[in-house]
Amino acid sequence: MVKRSASSWMGTFRTTGNRLVSTFSTKAWAKPFRNAVPLSISSGAEGLLSLGATAVATRSLGVDVFGIMVFIMALRAVIGALVKVRLRETIIRFGAQANETGDRAKLQRLIGFGLVIDVASTLVGLAVLHLVIATILGMLNIPATHADAAYYYGLTVAATTLTGTTDSLLRLFDRFDLVGIQNVLTPAIRLAGGLGLAFAGAGLAAFLTLWGASLVVSRGWLAAVSLRELARRDLLAPRQILTRAALRPAAGVWRHSFGMFCNQVVNRARDKSAPLLIGALLDPGAAAILRIAENIGGLTRKPISKILIPALYPALAQATASGNHRRRRRMAVRASLGAGVLGVAIMVPLVVFGETILRHAFGSGFQAAYMPMLLFAIAGVIRTFMSPLPPLLNVAGRVFTAVGIQLVATAVWGTTMWLLVDSVDVSAVPLAEIAQTLVTGGMMYAIVRVYLPDRVNEPAKTPAPDPAPEA
Predict the structure, then answer these.
(1) Chain centroid to CA 224: how far?
(2) What residue ranges do the domains of the chain occupy?
């Protein structure tokens, strides 16, 4: 047996490493993971900064006052979920088709369509806020002294509704580095400002002002860099973007947008309303505990919402536009396995160090969040494994199928929480999330198996001519 020298082994390792780097850099199925690199870096920083900002707010305000802050933030989030037409999936899907065919005019019409919808949803959101906020604050028994702060914080819903198209375009153009910067900017402002407010002994109104200002600044920056990107690609032409044709940019856009809106209303309104419901059924302190448990336990699904899905969806849309269904399937399977393993890896330290984190970061009043936190972590791990299923349905155009699935899952979620809240208090919410996640995953997997092909589209073969009749 010939012994290999150290230099020979080093050469083998170097060659293997170069092959891995080349595969990661060039293979089409690895594109979601390439896009995920800047998002993973920014998401890690965002998670740490957000936890730090939340810890500062909880220690400065206390459990009950922080619970009122959670109420107000949840109310704004629910209004946003109900009125914002999130066009990210629509713009990426039809924008990928326009890029594939080189149809510049179609892409500009799509941008105009998104801007019109953003302005309309903003106006509706502000009107709803003005009409309902006083009534809802009264129903939740929030003191009248906080009404003005809640109203002005609610106005920041315009910051998210007005910039939906700009965010979508950066993802379409694979500028995930810029999206990552915006993700970090919001919690960084909150942490830095929160430390100053804590030192000054500020109250709820000051923290709400800071939280709202950070959102306005970060979304404003996002809009600015998106406009710069459009100008760099010679797409910033108002006369071609803001035309009547923008209301009909391509066949199927309105149907897809409406389906995604229905899906979003059901999905996001359910998730965002949990603090309002649990606080109304129990008390503001319970809403605060729920918020902390969800923030920490939800770290297991952060790789999905902040990294994997934003990176995966454009790649799936491009594979679908080119007709390469086999490559699309490989992307989905490998993304599912990678995200699931990462979710499990994040959950292990939460099980071991969760109580310590809660006690030292948020105070002894939040140690009751440990069990709900673990249940949220389990729900997040389950969601990581099924994460490619919703974008697969969306890029295939089956948005109303997804809406039906979400309606069934929401019914399961509400029923489960209602039956369990009296016996397990706050833990009813994560248990309901586990139930609805399992139902959603099972139904989506069955639909994907039936309706989405795996073959690669090939050019149609010209049929052979009929043989000449025999003499």
Answers:
(1) 21
(2) 28-451
